[in-house]
Design goal:
The complex is a heterodimer of chains A (about 120) and B (about 150).
Chain A: E1 9-14, E2 17-22, E3 26-27, H1 32-46, E4 50-53, E5 59-60, H2 62-74, E6 81-84, H3 88-96, E7 104-106, H4 109-117
Parallel strand pairs in A: 2-4, 3-5, 4-6, 6-7
Antiparallel strand pairs in A: 1-2
Helix pairs in contact in A: 1-2
Chain B: E1 2-7, H1 14-27, H2 36-53, E2 63-70, E3 73-80, H3 87-94, H4 115-123, E4 126-132, E5 135-143
Antiparallel strand pairs in B: 1-2, 2-3, 3-5, 4-5
Helix pairs in contact in B: 1-2, 2-4
Classes of the chains: A alpha/beta (about 120), B alpha+beta (about 150).
Chain lengths: ~120, ~150
């Protein structure tokens, strides 16, 4: 209940893009700037589609959403950005702000990869 | 159930308060209600706005979060002794109008901020702001009686 999380990510490279997986449960104002920086560093390094895997994230606020939108805009030149494994709490925030209509959202990485392979 | 939480004007305490509010929902036997995430999000957004924009009178000043659950209504009253909100911001808290980006907005035109108060207005069944006895007082109400927990 009391632990404040710090930003940490895992990264996996596929031929269809690079997966960025935050290893924390909340993307909020405390970690949003670091989250944005980590994602953009990976995008700049790989110059490929970024797949944000939110499997560990069960809470996102407007600061986290703003960081996600900033990354989405900044990656348009290098391949774009999609989301997968979006928890229902996070999806609710995306839906409330109509961002579920903007982001490409996949159930999981396998679904994304199989759709891209088809 | 009536409980009061005091917190400093410190961003790092927001998730702690938010988790406490969620835990209170569990204690009140509404932990599985579909609106619990909305309550947590609204709490985080309101505290974030307060801490970001408030001009607190002293380093010792605290933000107080008073939660109550009665008859299916969950109320969160947040008060703090900072400077009164500007007329424009106070109006925004009192207005029912929710402004979100249109579906056909261009990607580069997407806003990256300003969602906080819009989210609060979207998820609360009632939202009020008033200036009272030198305090900014925000009231958020959630009607949890309409959907089974």
């Amino acid at each position: 209940l009391w632990q404040v999380e710090t930003m940490e990510i895992e990264q996996e490279i596929y031929d269809k893009g690079v997966v960025v997986r935050p290893v924390l449960s909340r993307v909020d104002s405390l970690v949003a700037p670091d989250f944005r920086r980590c994602v953009l560093d990976v995008a700049a390094e790989n110059k490929a589609l970024v797949i944000i895997d939110l499997i560990n994230v069960d809470f996102m606020d407007s600061s986290g959403l703003g960081a996600l939108i900033g990354c989405f805009k900044s990656t348009q030149e290098t391949g774009g950005l999609v989301l997968c494994n979006v928890h229902k709490n996070v999806h609710e925030v995306l839906a409330l702000t109509h961002m579920d209509r903007i982001f490409e959202i996949y159930d999981d990485i396998d679904t994304f990869l199989s759709k891209k392979a088809a | 159930m009536n409980i009061k939480i005091s917190t400093e004007y410190d961003n790092s305490q927001i998730p702690i308060v938010a988790r406490l509010v969620r835990h209170l929902c569990v204690v009140c036997d509404i932990g599985n209600h579909p609106s619990v995430n909305k309550i947590e999000v609204a709490t985080v957004e309101l505290l974030t706005n307060i801490i970001k924009y408030a001009e607190r009178p002293s380093a010792e000043s605290l933000v107080e979060v008073h939660c109550s659950f009665e008859g299916g209504d969950f109320h969160i009253i947040v008060s703090e002794p900072g400077k009164a909100l500007s007329e424009r911001v106070a109006y925004e808290y009192g207005s029912d109008t929710v402004s979100m980006p249109e579906a056909d907005i261009g990607i580069m035109d997407l806003p990256e901020s300003g969602f906080g108060i819009q989210i609060i207005k979207s998820v609360c069944d009632d939202l009020h702001y008033k200036r009272e006895k030198g305090l900014n007082v925000f009231t958020m109400a959630f009607d949890l009686s309409s959907v089974e927990a």
